[in-house]
Amino acid sequence: MALNITILGLGPVGTSLGLALGTIDAQMLDVGRPVITGWDRDQSVMKEARGRLAADRVEGNLQRAVREADVVIAAVDYGEMRELLASIAPSLKNGAIVTDTTATKAPILEWATELLPITVEFIGGHPLTGFGDDAGLGTSRDALRGAIYCLVPLPRTRRAALDGVEALVTAIEAKPYYMDAFEHDSYVAAAAHLPLALALALMETVGQSGGWREIQAIAGEGLLRMTELASGDAALAGDALLGNAAAIDGWLDRLIGSLIDLQKTLRDPGALEALLERSRVTRDDWLRSEPNLRPGESTFHGNLQDVERPNLSGLFFGRRRPSPNPKKRR
Amino acid sequence: MALNITILGLGPVGTSLGLALGTIDAQMLDVGRPVITGWDRDQSVMKEARGRLAADRVEGNLQRAVREADVVIAAVDYGEMRELLASIAPSLKNGAIVTDTTATKAPILEWATELLPITVEFIGGHPLTGFGDDAGLGTSRDALRGAIYCLVPLPRTRRAALDGVEALVTAIEAKPYYMDAFEHDSYVAAAAHLPLALALALMETVGQSGGWREIQAIAGEGLLRMTELASGDAALAGDALLGNAAAIDGWLDRLIGSLIDLQKTLRDPGALEALLERSRVTRDDWLRSEPNLRPGESTFHGNLQDVERPNLSGLFFGRRRPSPNPKKRR
Questions:
Q1: Cβ distance A269 to B238 under 8 Å?
Q2: What ipTM describes this predicted complex?
Q3: Which residues of A touch B12 (CB under 8 A)?
Q4: Which of B69, B58, B48 is nearest to B5 (CA)?
Q5: pLDDT in tens, A129-154
Q6: Residue B146 — very low, low, confident or very high, per pLDDT cuts 50/70/90?
Q7: Using the beta-carbon criterion (under 8 Å), do A269 and B223 form an inter-chain contact?
Q8: Do B292 and A318 touch (CB under 8 A)?
Q9: pTM of the full structure
């Protein structure tokens, strides 16, 4: 009998997963190609996902959508997750495996423990599907190929369930990467949410200051780039920041510590030189590393090319490029 | 008799000024086209500037280079400025006008007051010549055309001297913009040095943390962009930060305040929503404004196009683009 997989939430992540799972080579899984059921709160989103073949069938009733599922993938926003888990809990069949895709794991695991019946397995999941600015690639089968896929089991999760999810992740050619929930949330906070928080704080500091009128006149691309993340989708940004607030808070403490250290360093040319060197080397090594590898994973071809240097004096002042013709913008 | 202008320091700013001043339309100035003398500590830099026609003549002896000058433009780094002013002071002719090009004005004005004879005029200058990443444009005549050119006189500077410098700035088609030294340094700190300081603090916070190995594996383009300024030329960065340390220190205090506020905001969905909205609107308005205008200066064509939104979820995680082929790099 074929494996029934239900995807709840057909945004970019849910759709990409549906496309990837629906094109699994039948030889890759013991059970052959799974059957994908899709559900979304929004009828039109569901229809579009069906049209893109991201699911074999769609089902608008949440309870019916999960009733026969062997695997349920909850791919809704952090803000909707608690309610979703509570809603599906009574309808899940015994032995079903539930996993999610949000960027925060500690609260999700807490909710799963609290809300899901003990007859059901839960494994937190977080596929790292970002593709820089190529938004189009965000919802394709390729969004997952080669991507790191974080897996965070509960202490009570059984080996067999873990093996099942790992087999699916491997079958879509993503790379399983086991982590502890608090570790995961902390690393994700540092990698993604701290930069966003910082862009907001910087925009607030200069943009709400009395000198903003003058500052914006002389500021160049540097300030523009350092505040870029503050221009992103506000709903997505809010969901991400609220969802991982505890871990972000710890990093903000550490960052404030670094800024206070920096205030001292600005009075000490030797220490400043050392800081500049240290930052540059750390970032260069990162840039030279092969992207998309789990720690410890490596490829054979060494990669010691030069790293591009930003033109600092060019980025400091004025002369930001005129906005391109509005007709060329989306 | 032609106006003698001596440019001390033939880096990008000095060279751009030489090219711009050397191609002034003779009708633009009462005195006709000025005669440009160039000096640099480095013989080969001097030779190259001469080859690029950035000066009519070069003179390797600093005292001889300034002796006949009506206007001396000190275009060396902040770190060399004090010594340079001390060295030229005894050789300046009565009534000579001295100006500089560094991004910090308060300490420079202090040194000018302390070191230059009372028979000489001093006006701080700061041309905003940045051109984003197009480093090539940094040393061309066009680097100054249309650029804001900050002018910071001493209290004792005479009107005639100010008019003379303003005439030169106007003749090279830059836009004179009068500011107070402390205002200037504060705005410059916010526009250029605070973003750099922040990139360094962020790189230090995450790069020196115990989790860096894991963080760099999952981090996407967002963190990469937010630390980009930390990869710039270390000597230039150090010179900029040390030169404006006092003003940067004040902004770091304010930024730390914003970060502490943000820690509270992360627990308050309504306040977070308001912050996200405020940041976005402030930055959008800035992006929609015409670049390179002094505050108050405006153009007639309204400019209400859409602003490009970064793809946040795409920037958060993994999948940074593989580094391009090393052969394609510079």
A1: yes
A2: 0.89
A3: 313
A4: B69
A5: 864 344 444 467 778 888 899 999 99
A6: confident
A7: no
A8: yes
A9: 0.89
